[in-house]
Amino acid sequence: MNIGEVAERSGLPPKTIRYYEDIGLVRPLRSDNGYRAFRETDLHKLAFLGRARALGFSIEDCRLLLSLYEDESRESAQVKSIAEEHLTAIEKKIAQLEAMRETLSHLVMSCHGDNRPDCPILSDLATGPGDRN
Amino acid sequence: MNIGEVAERSGLPPKTIRYYEDIGLVRPLRSDNGYRAFRETDLHKLAFLGRARALGFSIEDCRLLLSLYEDESRESAQVKSIAEEHLTAIEKKIAQLEAMRETLSHLVMSCHGDNRPDCPILSDLATGPGDRN
DNA sequence: TATGGAGCTTCCAGTGGGGGGAAGGTCAAT
DNA sequence: ATTGACCTTCCCCCCACTGGAAGCTCCATA
């Protein structure tokens, strides 16, 4: 398989696939013409990576997950631990974003948004929360 | 004021302040010894930037917001529009993260996490959702 | 057989928003 | 005079790609 077909079947852009080879996540063979020659196992790995990335795992987490996937003697606790840590990080990120949303939505609602210059959003940014001068 | 005092009073690291000067967000004067000489207005701008960044606005949004803040003839609708767009982006990001959290938490709960190798997390990554082989 | 276009290769640079650290100048107190 | 804290510029590093240039190869068509 050439990279184009792998890209289509894995859903990953060719650039990303080359990058994944660069950093050692996949090791496709090479044809005589210098083209990358992907096996089904390479495609499978790339699809694995695509799904792991879609769940927000970092590249290094993906590398670990992939090696655990290929390790017959893995312990599921290792996998679960990585996933739990990532889940915690996601929840933390959500909490941060929700705090921003909270503040921002209040500010947006309190701004009349017309042609006049007074704006509680700018006032808040200028002097900090709770001050409306 | 030297950069250290401004850093302390604005809450921004010196590195960040230098970077903000680099990209033209602040323009402190220079003392004879080559040190940056910040005025109160510079400090005020930096604090403004710090609060805007804490609300997740991009640097370019911050640049716009700052120029609106300094523009006496602004219309609050311009500010509100930037804030609304950013709020929408935040909500979109939250939705993405919540989808990840949903999937991940199910996977984590379904993994026994012991010394055995079978792991529904890896199975899901290997074959896609809904397949447990 | 020539040609054209699609697909492949490598390499370099840039993204956003800074952070780390080196090499060197300056200031204030001892 | 020396120390140590502070300041300066400079360049590289992070993440996970993405865009683009220059130059291959392959295949179909005229």
Architecture overview:
The structure is a homodimer of 133-residue chains. Chain A is elongated, with a radius of gyration of 24 Å. Chain A has two domains: 1-74, Multidrug-efflux Transporter Regulator, Chain: A, Domain 2 (Orthogonal Bundle), CATH 1.10.1660.10; 90-133, no CATH class. A two-stranded antiparallel ribbon of chain A has the order 1-2. Helices cover 65% and strands 3% of the residues of chain A. Chain A is mainly alpha-helical and 133 residues long. The first copy, chain A, is built from six helices and two strands. The interface between A and B is large, with 52 and 53 residues. Chain A binds a DNA duplex (30 and 30 nucleotides) through residues 2-4, 13-16, 18-19, 23, 33-36, 53, 58-59.
The share of residues in helices of chain A is: 55-70%
Oligomer: homodimer
Q: Taking all residues together, what is the mean pLDDT of chain A?
A: 96
Q: Which CATH top level class of the largest domain in chain A fits?
A: Mainly Alpha
Estimate nothing, just give the exact number of structural domains of chain A: 2
| Total of helices of chain A | 6
Q: How many strands of chain A?
A: 2
Name the chain pair with the biggest interface and residue counts per chain: A-B, 52 and 53 residues
Strand portion of chain A: under 5%
Query: Which structural class should the secondary elements of chain A be placed in?
Result: mainly alpha
What is the CATH architecture term of the largest domain in chain A? Orthogonal Bundle
Q: End-to-end distance of chain A, in Å?
A: 65 Å
Cα-based radius of gyration of chain A, to the nearest Å: 24 Å
Q: What is the N-to-C succession of helices and strands of chain A?
A: HHEEHHHH
Major beta sheet summary of chain A: 2 strands, antiparallel
